[in-house]
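Key result, reporting period 2: structure in, sequence out.
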C-alpha cells in the first residue's frame, strides 16, 4: 500500500495551465456537462476581464479549472480529492505535519 504522498508523486506531470489544455483534458475525461460549465465560466471571466480591464478574474478561473482538469486525468486521484474535500468540510484540515508545504505544491505544479 502506498501513502497518499507517494501516489501523488508518481502521477504524470500536471495539465499545462492554459485554457486550451484544460479544455482538452475536460473534453477527453469529464463529459459534456462539465465541459459546458467550463466554457461558460471561461466566457464569463473573459467578459469580466474585458469590462473591468483587469485579468484577475480570468487568471483565477483558469487556475481553478486547472486544478479541476488535473483531477479528471486520474479517476482514483479525483475520488481521493473529493473524499479529502468532504473530510475537510466535515472535520477541518489535517494536522500541519500531514499538509503539503507551499514548496511541495510549487514543485508539483511548477508554479
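The corresponding designed sequence is given below.
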Amino acid at each position: 500500500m502506498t501513502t497518499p504522498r507517494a501516489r501523488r508523486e508518481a502521477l504524470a506531470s500536471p495539465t499545462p495551465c492554459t485554457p486550451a489544455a484544460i479544455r482538452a483534458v475536460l473534453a477527453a475525461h469529464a463529459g459534456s456537462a462539465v465541459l459546458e460549465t467550463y466554457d461558460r465560466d471561461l466566457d464569463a471571466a473573459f467578459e469580466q476581464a474585458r469590462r473591468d480591464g483587469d485579468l484577475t478574474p480570468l487568471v483565477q478561473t483558469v487556475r481553478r479549472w486547472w486544478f479541476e482538469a488535473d483531477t479528471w486525468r486520474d479517476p482514483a486521484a479525483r475520488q481521493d480529492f473529493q473524499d479529502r474535500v468532504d473530510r475537510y468540510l466535515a472535520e477541518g484540515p489535517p494536522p500541519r505535519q500531514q499538509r503539503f508545504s507551499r514548496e511541495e505544491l510549487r514543485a508539483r505544479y511548477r508554479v
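The chain has two domains: 16-73, 75-111. Helices lie at 4-10, 19-29, 32-52, 56-72, 75-91, 102-109. This case is discussed further under Risks and Mitigation.
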